[in-house]
Amino acid sequence: CGCCNSPCPSPSQLAALERQVFDFLGYQWAPILANFLHIIIVILGLFGTIQYRPRYIVVYAIWTAVWVTWNIFIICFYLEVGGLSKDSELLTFNISRHQSWWSENGPGCVRKEASMSGIKGLDNHSYISVIGCALEYRYIEVMHSSFQILIALVGFVYACYVVSVFTEEEDSFDFIGGFDPFPLYHVNEKPTNLLFKQTYL
Question: CA-CA distance, 63 to 45, in Å (whole number)?
Answer without folding.
Answer: 10
